[in-house]
């Protein structure tokens, strides 16, 4: 696993929901002078996405280098059409892994870098905040609950290196060029400033970063002493993370899981199959029904915080390309924790006694869902998911 490189000298702003994220992203693109690079999983065809598209096309018309990476699956049926729109406007656009030519992996990352000076990392796709992301565009009761960060400082060169490397790898590179690129990615970016937040970029891919995100969580949970609040929409981690949560709770850490539910009945059944053991160990579980919870965030001991794209499921932890930022800063952690605590208040706390008294058909349903999911993930991850 590639070692996490923390660097000081970062100005990190937490962006809650698309309202804050899109306004900040568009402003940065409009002020760009040289280059804009963007990578996303979903790129919808709604009013919000059209505003981003217009900003990117306008930047290209001003003579800037604009490069956009869209996942072939996340882009949906419109991906090829959108690619043509971009190319006609002078925006370079590549689709990630069309027709699964490079295996099962998808790019699930949501990244942007402007002028190699401003970066964005998080879980927010290019899609309107108030509609579902399943292609049906069903109105949501409240804006999608999600987060991103705006980043300036010493970590931006690392972010820029990862996005541009992804762009190059999607092109036609000779073997020697790919080897040189791999060597270059191992070199930490250099910067001379030393102030503000300490942070690290955590990348998951299928080469040297296969388990980086999972191990970052494991290390943080293993050293937790007081509190751990983790929010995620798709909860189906392997045994290692489940055991880390249980062990932290047994040590006396106040562990709370805030989980998104209601998207997929099968996914909910898999997540609920873990409830009895987690609850019995002292882990508190909350289900969020207010709106779509899409956040992949956590705060541990009021100092360690992460925001990113990685779910707690087999695809994110063992198959897809993901990107999180880990921040060691009590001020940033306090800001994120405030949102998480509000999320807990808006959620439904699961009663351990109710779980124990579940009818046998429901228990059987959860167990079958777990075993089916486990078999599929073991196959998809070549045995890595356990």
Automatic annotation (TrEMBL):
Broadest EC class assigned to this enzyme: transferase
Record-listed E.C. numbers: 2.7.8.-
PLD phosphodiesterase domain boundaries: 103-130, 289-316
UniProt catalytic activity: 2 a 1,2-diacyl-sn-glycero-3-phospho-(1'-sn-glycerol) = a cardiolipin + glycerol
Keywords from the named record: Cell membrane, Lipid biosynthesis, Lipid metabolism, Membrane, Phospholipid biosynthesis, Phospholipid metabolism, Transferase
InterPro entries from the UniProt entry: Cardiolipin_synth_ClsB, PLD-like_dom, PLipase_D/transphosphatidylase
Residues of the active site: 108, 110, 115, 294, 296, 301
Localisation per UniProt entry: Cell membrane
Membrane topology: Peripheral membrane protein
Keyword hit for Membrane: yes
Pfam entry (one): PLDc_2
Protein purpose: Catalyzes the phosphatidyl group transfer from one phosphatidylglycerol molecule to another to form cardiolipin (CL) (diphosphatidylglycerol) and glycerol.
Recorded family membership: Belongs to the phospholipase D family. Cardiolipin synthase subfamily. ClsB sub-subfamily.
HAMAP family: Cardiolipin_synth_ClsB (MF_01917)
Protein name: Cardiolipin synthase B
Gene: clsB
């Amino acid at each position: 696993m590639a070692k996490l490189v923390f660097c000081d000298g970062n100005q990190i702003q937490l962006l809650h929901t698309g309202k804050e994220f899109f306004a900040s992203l568009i402003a940065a693109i409009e002020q760009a002078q040289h280059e804009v690079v963007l990578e996303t999983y979903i790129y919808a065809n709604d009013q919000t996405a059209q505003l981003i598209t217009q900003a990117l096309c306008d930047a290209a018309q001003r003579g800037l280098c604009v490069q956009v990476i869209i996942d072939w699956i996340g882009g949906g049926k419109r991906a090829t059409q959108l690619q043509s729109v971009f190319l006609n406007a002078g925006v370079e656009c590549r689709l990630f892994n069309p027709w699964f030519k490079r295996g099962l992996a998808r790019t699930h990352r949501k990244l942007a870098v402007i002028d190699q000076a401003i970066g964005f990392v998080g879980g927010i796709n290019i899609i309107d905040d108030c509609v579902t992301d399943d292609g049906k565009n069903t109105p949501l009761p409240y804006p999608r609950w999600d987060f991103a960060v705006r980043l300036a400082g010493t970590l931006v060169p690392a972010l820029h290196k990862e996005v541009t490397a992804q762009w190059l790898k999607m092109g036609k590179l000779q073997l020697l060029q790919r080897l040189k690129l791999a060597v270059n990615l191992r070199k930490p970016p250099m910067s001379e400033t030393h102030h503000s937040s300490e942070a690290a970029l955590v990348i998951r891919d299928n080469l040297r970063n296969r388990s980086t995100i999972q191990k970052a969580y494991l290390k943080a949970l293993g050293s937790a002493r007081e509190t751990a609040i983790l929010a995620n929409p798709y909860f189906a981690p392997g045994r290692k993370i489940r055991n880390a949560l249980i062990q932290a709770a047994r040590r006396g850490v106040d562990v709370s899981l805030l989980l998104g539910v209601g998207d997929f009945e099968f996914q909910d059944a898999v997540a609920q199959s873990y409830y009895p053991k987690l609850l019995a160990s002292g882990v508190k579980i909350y289900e969020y029904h207010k709106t779509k919870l899409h956040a992949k965030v956590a705060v541990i001991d009021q100092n360690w915080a992460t925001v990113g794209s990685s779910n707690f499921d087999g695809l994110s932890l063992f198959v897809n390309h993901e990107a999180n930022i880990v921040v060691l800063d009590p001020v940033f952690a306090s800001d994120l924790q405030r949102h998480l605590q509000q999320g807990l208040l808006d959620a439904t706390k699961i009663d351990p006694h109710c779980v124990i008294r579940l009818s046998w058909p429901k228990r059987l349903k959860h167990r079958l869902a777990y075993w089916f999911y486990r078999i599929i993930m073991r196959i998809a991850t070549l045995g890595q998911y356990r």
